[in-house]
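Bench notes, afternoon.
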Amino acid sequence: MSPISSPENLPQWAIDLQSPPKPRPKPSNIPDPPGFSAAPTSKRSLSAKHPSRKAPSVDETDMLKIKKSWEVALAPAKALPMNAIMMYMSGNSLQIFSIMMVFMLFKNPIQGILQTNQVFTKYESPRTKDKMWLVKSVYVLMNLVALGLGIWKVNGMGLLPKERQDQTG
């Protein structure tokens, strides 16, 4: 068997892919669209028109890390209105849908609280470490509010023992 990589054994489509397409003549009655330049551009001419951006300083990088960490910390709060509406709309009866919703409402905040340090490790640096405690505490607080929403729902479903009769068998 001969090797496939030799040019005479290549299929026509592979030969077509390796050779550049032939230029087509431009009809003279159709004008170029605005902003189009028929002159071939090279990487050198593009880099001359657009100077390269300077690298961000350490302060700018740390500021971006803090900003992004605040976005992550406030993400549970952004999900609270949606969760509250879903809990209200699912009703107070014991059905599989409402039970699954309550399970997810408890699981996600507990999981978030347990993984707080892992969530923020990519945003921590020696210079931002002292500012991260506030971000982490807000993240934990927002997850605790989500847990409170779950407790409210369980109470509405009648599953939370409140009366003395609920605790006796």
